[in-house]
Predict the structure.
Amino acid sequence: MNSFLFVGLGGIAGAISRYTISKWADYRWPGWFPTGTFIVNVLGSFLLGLLVGFNLMGHPLLDNHYLFLGTGFMGSFTTFSTFSVEVVGLLKREKFPLALRYPLFTLLAGISAAALGIAASGYLVS
């Protein structure tokens, strides 16, 4: 039962964080690019990479910490469904070049951020 509690509490924190960052980014940079979703997905990739990197470096988190941070927080903080709907919206508005660039840029930035997070964990551990 405790594992569900850790996932749930992490999920609450992640969802609130995503909502807050998305609203702030949309206010700060209004316009045609879904900045809020992009920021949370790239930041989430970095943070999850950091957690994975700690495990790879032989400094694993306690199960409950990983359930809270990895599964709960990161699971609700990043959002593939919103990203997908935004791409469909761009296609419906006939913004074809952006509908192609946004997913490619997001994928490249997310993978790069995850790799950077894993690399950063090595520096933080040493």
User: Anything to note?
Assistant: The chain is about 85% helix and 0% strand. Residues 1-124 form one domain. The two ends are 35 Å apart (CA to CA).
